[in-house]
Amino acid sequence: MYVEHLQLQRSFAFCRVWGSDEEHDLHIHDCLEIGVVLKNELKYQFNDHTYIGRPGDVFLCRPFEPHWSFSKPDQPFECILVLFTPSSVHKIPDGNQLIKPFYTTKGVQPLIPANTNFAKTISKAATLAVEAQEQGKEAWVTHQFMHLIDILLQVNQYVKESQSTDVHKLPPSGIVEAVGYMLDHYHLPLDIEKLSSQVGLGRTMFFKEFRQLTGLTPNEFLNRLRIQSASDLLRTTNKSMIDLAFASGFQSLSAFNKQFKRYTGQAPREYRKKSNT
Length: 277
Prior knowledge:
Elements: E1 12-19, E2 26-27, E3 32-39, E4 42-46, E5 49-53, E6 58-61, E7 67-71, E8 77-84, E9 111-112, H1 117-134, H2 140-164, H3 173-185, H4 192-198, H5 203-214, H6 218-236, H7 241-247, H8 253-264, H9 268-275
Antiparallel strand pairs: 1-8, 2-7, 3-6, 3-8, 4-5, 4-7, 6-9
Helix pairs in contact: 1-2, 6-7, 6-8
């Protein structure tokens, strides 16, 4: 159930937000999110896991994953949310490599502690990005995009170093290759059985390792990528439903409508209407 549905008017945004202990919002949205805690403590809950965020801590939120945020009584929090879609990095070299951490669960924790250089760099970049917009800095959107890339590079390096400390956490290279391939080719017809063969794994092992890495079956993963693409096109273009369905990898309008409502709780036309209000 969608209690609050965050919407983007373009492929990325930096938002300074405040809240109190009275706000117990469930966030489930189709974009990717990075939260940077600036003031007071903020409790993040991801399904059954809870983390206490302190100033400087950074949180990674996966698309379509429910998460809650709570502050302490009489201690309103302040944080910066970095919201973006996969399309924001599609046109830069190796752009899809930057968003892999948001599509994996194995060995990837949502919290980057404030005492790491990675969190410090991310917090500084997010603050500069918000200030560029608040101060009306010339070409502030370009400045924000540069900060977004810097932040994603820091996230990737943190995840890489965290995983390298325990080789047993690393997934089979073939699964990583499959995730990268699907990020690059989700808009094309994909044969999951053929993909598993191409990366050198049998069907049973491929599905098992894929779920362990991403938390999803290959088909669920592919559908979510396609829904994200369609959501972005609904917000930012005037493409007809059939055109954006095919552009996002769906083979029929009926399949698109069914999957879109399943993941977002709304029909595509309703989603577009709300996005434009």
